[in-house]
Amino acid sequence: MEPNQGVQQTIEQVIGRKVIRRLVLPCILFTLMGSIDRTNVGFAALQMNTDLGLSATAYGFGAGILFVGYVLAKYPSVRLYETIGFRRWLATITLAWGLAACLLALIQTQGQLYLLRVLIGFAEGGLSSGLMLYLGHWAPERWRATILAVPIMSINVSQVIGGPLSGLLLDMDNPLGIAGWRFMFLVEALPAVALAVFAWCYFPDRPADAAWLDAAERQWLRDHVHAERRKAPGGDGSGRWEALRSRSGWLCALIWFCILASNYGVMFWLPTIVKGLSGLTATQTGLIVALPNAAAAVGLLINARHSDRTGERFLHIALPALVGGFGLLGALLLGPGPGGLALLILGGACTGCTVAAFWAVPTRILRPEALAMGVVMINMLGSFAGALIPPAMGALREASGSYLPPTLLITGIACLLATLCLITRAQIARSGATP
């Protein structure tokens, strides 16, 4: 190894560790609470559907309509981030979603549920896009999937924590004189209000503002992270709107749609499916649901680190997706019991571990000036998965009286995802980039 190369690797490691400790770990709190406040409706449904008179289709619509607001807010939210800076932007959207989530404890009609779900989606709409853009400015190439994996992993961790917690809160006997599902919404929304204050006081807007980096480390980020993006060969033109003309960009957006379709289908319906198959209490259901999510958190980090070591991205998405889809189908067919539980854990782990390897791709193939719009485009198309798949699963469940057709839908999406990954890998290889 050349002496200069050794110095470069050393400073890259130092910066990577600092970024994980100072920025990535705090970002976990926001993605964790955001995920809980988006998906705890899956547990609320165990009681709320009866109290509000919601059918399976109406519940699926209420779960998915959040993503209408999510999609509508994507571009305005990222533009706001670029205008006022990351710190003010994150504090604003966190406070807005926290207050809207608190109001879910007061709803009396399904119309109020739909309205607040849209508002929560609108407030959170730019969260994932903004975090990917922000951390991408601090992420050396060989650390990129790992750095992006850690906050994404918190989505799975949120289900490990949120599942048992939601079940426990639901089983409480009228705390504060209100139904368990109302109490659950209130308790799980309040931390977001505190996080808004933390965001305002803690985060630097850009590397130049980070007091915990020395001058040489700030210069290294300018010379290497930004230079890597200027060399990206994946665009079809130049300028802010380049991603909209990029075939690889649109293929990436379709891949992200399938990833989110699989993940949100599992998140919103797994509690209902587990309880329907086993007849467990809400607390017991939460503990069972936590297991595949815990496995997904571990699998996500392992998959991301292996992807970083090998430099390969797409097979690290396609293969886990296939194993996950067929694992969930096998778990349903086997039913309650050790075999079904093992496949449920395997299926959940593989379905959830595809995300981080994916986000190392757009930051590599899109030029710096096109990255913000590319991330917005990818996230907008992906968000339609959240709006479409939970209602579709509800309609299939109601029409068939079985959980098999909704599960087959998830398995089919996994197969489509693997196919799109192979197509995109070949497309990027032909363009001269490293897939």
UniProtKB/TrEMBL annotation:
Record-annotated membrane-spanning stretches: 19-36, 56-77, 89-108, 114-135, 147-169, 181-203, 250-270, 282-302, 314-335, 341-361, 370-391, 403-423
Cell compartments where the protein resides: Membrane
Membrane topology: Multi-pass membrane protein
GO cellular-component term (any): membrane
Keyword Transport listed: yes
Gene3D superfamilies linked to this entry: MFS general substrate transporter like domains
CDD domains for the chain: MFS_ExuT_GudP_like
Pfam family, one: MFS_1
Residue span(s) of domain Major facilitator superfamily (MFS) profile: 23-430
Gene Ontology MF, one: transmembrane transporter activity
Keyword set includes S-adenosyl-L-methionine: no
Source organism, top-level taxon: Bacteria
Keywords: Membrane, Transmembrane, Transmembrane helix, Transport
PANTHER family to which the protein is assigned, alphabetical: PERMEASE-RELATED, TRANSPORTER, PUTATIVE (AFU_ORTHOLOGUE AFUA_6G08340)-RELATED
Full protein name: MFS transporter
Organism the protein comes from: Novosphingobium piscinae
